[in-house]
Each structure stands twice: as C-alpha cells, then as structure tokens.
Amino acid sequence: MPITLRNTKGSELTFAELDGNFTHLNTQIDTLTDSSTVKTFIDSSYVQGIAGQTYIESIVDSAYVNNRTTGIGDLFDSADAVQLVDSNYVQARVGDLFDSGDAVQLIDSDYVQTRVDTVKLFPYTVATAPSGTEGQMIYVTDGNAGDATLAVFSGGSFKVVSVLGATILDSAGGGGGGF
Fold it and tell me: Which residue of 6, 62, 124, 158 has the fewest CB atoms within a 10 Å radius of its CB?
C-alpha cells in the first residue's frame, strides 16, 4: 500500500490511513536492512559526489591511520595467539601424519641397536660423578683407587664393574685387533 499524503488527499487522514502509512514505512525499513539493498543507492559514484577523492586524501593521511591503529599489537599478543592456535587447531589442519605411537613403532630398540657400533661414555672423575640412577653406567677415570673403571649405579652408589687393564689383542697376539 503506498503512502497516503494529506496534501494529496485534501483532508485529514483517518486512523486506518495513518496506520497504513506507518505499516508501509516499517515494511520499507525491514527490506532495506541488508547491504545489497543499500549498495543499490549508495554506490561509489554517490560517495564521490559527496566527498571527492582529493577531499578524503586531505583528511585521511598516514598520520590519521596511524593514530587509529596504535595499540593493535597490545590487543593481540602471543597469549591470544596460543589460545587461538592450540594443538587441536594444528591437528585439525595437519591430520594424522605422525604421532608418538608411530615413532615408537618405527624407532624401537632393534632399530637403534642396528645403528649403534660404539658407545662413547663421558669421562667422569670420582669428584665429578653424577648422583646416579639405578642401572646407570659411567666411565670414571680414577674410580678404582686411581685407576680407570666402568661403574654401575646400584643400591645408592656407583659400583666398580671392572678395572680397565691390558690393551685389547687380536688372536695372533698383536695389538689393535678385535675384542
């Protein structure tokens, strides 16, 4: 129903005509609430007709922008990033590539053992020996009354495993061979 104008009608409007006008306006407002409707009559030509590019550039310069963006870094810090990008967020985007269970299946004790050909132990002295954990083995340069020794932590202290003695020999009696 179009709006009834009093001047066009030539007399006072009735309550029904007034209500009809308000209903029509309300319907028009409800249909203009989305951006596509607004864009039909407020487009770039309309805006440029009101405020030209030169005018906008004269009031919106780098100082204007910087004054309104100062503190953005304070609004979003690393704690905010961690809340947004947590392990669930990453996992959802990475998928099931590899987890610790997969790693243990691939890199088990047999895998490690096939790649170990020597063991190098850190040289401790009696004075620098660590506090130790049950079953830990260390090399002590002066651990057996001044002689070098291997020691294993057992029962609250390191125990001498063997005194390091003679040079290894091959089966012919020459030095430097196999064990």
Answer: 62
